Amino acid sequence: MAVCARLCGVGPARGCRRRGAAREQRRGGAADSEPDTDTDPEEAGGGGGAGEEDEDEERIEGGRPAPPPAEAGPAARAPLSLLELPPELLVQIFGSLPGTDLPSLARVCTTFRRILRTDTIWRRRCREEYGVCENLRKLEITGVSCRDVYAKRINPRVKSGRFMKILPDYEHMEYRDVYTCLLHRYRHILGLWQPDIGPYGGLLNVVVDGLFIIGWMYLPPHDPHVDDPMRFKPLFRIHLMERKCATVECMYGHKGPHNGHIQIVKKDEFSTKCNQTDHHRMSGGRQEEFRTWLREEWGRTLEDIFHEHMQELILMKFIYTSQYDNCLTYRRIYLPPNSPDDLIKPGLFKGTYGSHGLEIVMLSFHGKKAKGTKITGDPNIPAGQQTVEIDLAHPLQLPDIENLRDFSELSRIVLEVQEQVRREEQEEEQRQEEEDRSQQAASQPAAQPLGGEGAKGEETAAGAEGVAQDKAPASQPFVLPMGVISRNEDYPRTCRICFYGTGLIAGHGFTSPERTPGVFVLFDDDRFGFIWLELKSFSLYSRIKVSFQNAEAPSREAFDEMLKNIQSLAP
Ligand SMILES: [Zn+2]
Question: What ranges does the record list as Acidic residues composition bias (predicted)?
């Protein structure tokens, strides 16, 4: 490892291994008996290390007094070996290295190994790499600081004293254990995920929260209140119940945390399993479970929902999703990358989907197009499919407010643009064919024509961008045409700009899917709408204002790849 080479390869440092070994001999090798393995930072600092310590005072293990002046040579010189540095300084230096480099550092010599037992090093690694800001020793006094006590609450039974062992042993816990056995071990599941629940999908954010890793499921607010904040509930949590042993608990149901299991299947995929599904059952049986689910999911009772078709859809969702309560697989998703040219900031939105209720849609920009991808879905259009596509090269000029009420007038305008788009696509195809033919005719690799094509593409993209920027500050009155149904009458009455777009519709079970013409309406930075011409209905979308952790895409390509994957996996 580079770190070792740098630390050990020069000067007297070479002697450190010998000195260490000699000391080991003297002490009969009692201190460190753990065998070295290669991968985990777990064994950095070795075992042992138990003993009383002051929480605020830095305890440094393996500190060695500086060599006497006689050893230091004729003239006073700057220290050449790291071992000659004061231990406090070594703690500082080691604490600034990535936690994954520390195991190899611990193998350099026993002094390093002992210094690496200093818990402030690991506390700093927990804080800098995973954002942990709890103080272990103070935790029991102040209570577990958390956003939602419910998620972390220790099972009430514990308090009686009979089950004291179930309480996490914070007294003897060390940051080294938190780093190695919890954070490092489960680092691959941190981030944003979509559960595989057939067409319904979902949104899960796995985060480090205090000394826990928690999987929060995010749910849209109750239909049709798109502007309300997201709801969230914990699906699982992982923490150290005792030293060196992370416990996975299922949080599903209403009986508190119970035994669960997590398996990292492959890169960007993991699954959870519940080992005690009896904790999900209610004393009132399925009836009570359904009523509770309905109240949570929809905020009402079945009798409140007069619409018969909607009742069927709701019942179907309950039956389908409750099959997944014992085992779930998650696939990684990323938030869309943004660029300064985007019409608005891309991201996640809540949208109205008629009888299906509110669904989560991801808005992303791709040159002249913007895409709305379903993160949650329904039996008609499943999660992962592209629900709307916005043609940023074709802004729509809405009629005056008096004529906007007239559906046929709006319909005429949209269909005209649809015809124009069709013509342009045909021309583009022909141009492409001609280009291909001329390329085949030319024996030379055609550098010239390609350059020309690129230039033209840039031109149109710039055109679309210009339109967006010109229209951004202006606002115009907006009202839905007569006959267009909206779940929410509370939509904005002014808009900034409209574009031609298409919306995906399909029969039950995603049968005969079809892209149909529509109008994308941008209201403000956080809200947009879509008029589905053929359905004569309107969807209102409102931005999800949650700062999800570990959700950035590593690159534009990784995001595009993810989008392609979730679409192809959609049932
Ligand atoms: Zn469970």
Answer: 33-43, 426-436
Query: What's the CA-to-centroid distance between 166 and ligand 1, angstroms?
Result: 17
Q: Is there a contact between 185 and 244 (Cβ–Cβ < 8 Å)?
A: no
- 210 Cβ neighbours under 8 A, 6+ residues apart: 132, 134, 144, 145, 146, 152
Ion ligand 1, residue ranges at CB < 5 A? 250, 252, 274
Compute the distance between CA of residue 73 and CA of residue 492 in angstroms, rounded to an integer: 81
Q: Which residues of 18-27 are buried (b: 16+ CB within 10 A; e: fewer)?
A: eebeebeeee
570 C-alpha to center of ligand 1: Å?
Answer: 26
Task: Give 503 Cα–ligand 1 centroid separation in angstroms.
Answer: 38
Bridge partner residues of 234 (DSSP): 216
Closest-CA residue to 347 (of 117, 503, 541): 541
Contact predicate 486/358, CB 8 Å: no
Strands 369-374 and 386-396: antiparallel
Gap from CA of 322 to ligand 1 centroid (Å): 12
**What integer is the mean pLDDT of 260-281?**
94
Long-range contacts of 283-291 (CB under 8 A, 24+ apart): 289/322, 290/318
Read off the pLDDT of each residue in 259-277 and give the average, rounded to a whole number.
94
C-beta separation of 199 from 378 below 8 A:
yes
How sure is the predictor about 131, in pLDDT bands with cuts at 50, 70 and 90? confident
Average pLDDT over residues 497-522: 97
Q: Rounded CA gap, 89 and 109, in Å?
A: 17
Q: What is the DSSP string of 118-177?
A: -HHHHHHHHHHHH-----GGGHHHH----S-HHHHPPPGGGGGSTTGGGS--GGG--HHH
Structure tokens at 173: 């816990």
pLDDT digits (tens, 9 = 90+) for 371-397: 999 999 999 999 999 999 999 999 999
As a whole number of angstroms, the distance between CA 399 and CA 413 comes to 9
What separation in Å is there between the alpha carbon of 93 and the centre of ligand 1?
44
CA–CA distance, 441 with 263 (Å, rounded to integer):
56
Q: Furthest-apart CA pair in the chain: how many Å?
A: 99
Query: How many whole angstroms from 208 Cα to the centroid of ligand 1?
Result: 21
Can you tell me whether residue 184 is helix, strand or coil?
Answer: helix
What are the helix and strand counts (H, E) for the chain?
Answer: 15, 19
- For 508-531, letters b (16+ CB in 10 Å) and e give eebeeeeeebbbbbbbeeebbbbb
> In this structure, is the dihedral angle defined by the CA atoms of residues 416, 419, 423 and 429, taken in order, positive or negative?
positive
Check residue 44 and give its pLDDT: 54
Q: 3-class secondary structure for 321-377?
A: HHCCCCEEEEEEECECCCCCCCCCCCEEEEEECHHHCEEEEEEEEECCEEEEEECEC
C-alpha R_g of the chain: 31
